From TrEMBL:
Name of the protein: aspartyl aminopeptidase
Record-linked PANTHER family: ASPARTYL AMINOPEPTIDASE
Region: Disordered, residue numbers: 191-211
GO MF annotations in UniProt: metalloaminopeptidase activity; zinc ion binding
Statement: the UniProt record of this protein carries the keyword Hydrolase: yes
Keywords: Aminopeptidase, Hydrolase, Metal-binding, Metalloprotease, Protease, Zinc
Amino acid sequence: MASKPSLRAAEDFLSFVNSSPTPFHAVKSARERLTKAGFKQIKERDSWASTLQPGGKYFLTRNGSSIVAFAIGKKWKAGNPIGMIGAHTDSPCLRIKPVSKRQSDGFLQVAVETYGGGLWHTWFDRDLSIAGRAMVKAENGQIEQRLVKLERPILRIPTLAIHLERQESFQFNKETQLFPIAGLAAAELNRQGKTEDTKEEEKKEGPFEPLATPSQRHHTYIVEIIAENAGVDPNDILDFEMVLYDTQKSVVGGLNNELIFSARLDNLMMTYCSVEGLIESLSSSIVLDNDSTIRLIACFDHEEIGSQTAQGADSNLLPAVIRRLSVLPVSDPDNSDKSYDKLDTDTATAYEQTLATSFLISADMAHSVHPNYPAKYESQHRPEMNKGTVVKINANARYATNTPGIVLLQEAARRAKKASSSLSSAKEGVPLQLFVVRNDSSCGSTIGPMLSAAMGTRTLDLGNPQLSMHSIRETGGAHDVEHAVNLFESFFNNFEELEKKIIVD
């Protein structure tokens, strides 16, 4: 009798995505996993010369919404290759406007703006709450970032009854008809002990404020709830960045528990798989002893809006980290306490050498074939769920994949430990699939082309297949999580050997 496929990886992913409604929370979740696995936090603003050691595992963050983590092989030399996986932490969402207080026809409303290219009609009639970060005055006088995640639904964007407008297709104005309702004005007045006839209190004299305070720009109760969640007094809230999220939990679904129904599959599934792939590749305490490379993951914010921000993939974040790592001196096996005091004789071109020998996997979710729209897919490139990670190819370089990269990845997949959920009868290995978009369809974009162009590093684009991309609720394959984790683990474990075999100058 066939054994049931394992859902361990899928269920672990669910805990990750359910705790990560924003990029800030996704980075926090990644940090917790990396810290538990022995990674130490470093900061960009500090010198790394006396901190980084051979065999060490480290991570750094930028803006609290992007994270880079890496492990240094004990045989590392300046200019050596770096095996990298890049993903992104953001997803399309609705963000609360800087001045969000609205009231109409007895309803309290919250003004929002769209972030990224979402399927905004899917946000109607959902139980929504808010999450993000608040900048607060701490007791020590410092200004700190506090993450906020309200668990209970407080917002909803109601559709108009079909009796009042019978539309053939659902259409709406994103500026005037996408405002969530937060409750009734009368109920809020009652909470405050006021009535509609109560006159507004005269503005109290106080210190000069360049901007209106958060309590003046937003509904008072929303600020109070944020403050309570952040553990401070409402007057200590200086400002905040909050987005809306669906409170319905991500779950395993399907008749045979073979699917995942979830928000933010694009791209938290690939963020999760890259973090876990790196951690799993280091599960042996001696794996770095004979490694001359660096294993690195980079999860960026703002991919959904073009990545051209300080914490996006089109910034100096990854190049700056690689530049600093590329010139780390050779380790000294005779002096373990001062492993980096022996300088390499040629560090002038170490950065360029590292870029030329490194390899980047750009990991972003891919399209599964849709059974209701089969004509939208190229006939020979129709990825299916639970049949492996999808290699994405585009002749116009919207994806960065080329044949040397496919050969390297295919060998890593061949050597990967078999996913327990695999339908293959092979003793080892994980499956891969290929995807190209139809000539008469537009093609999505990833961080792959921009990073490969900026650094000249060999790059390949891939991702797990999914349906309903950019919807508030997306669908993926439960067993593809384990496929991708095992693929990434194998990539890190075999990159040093494979890089030397597949060279095209």
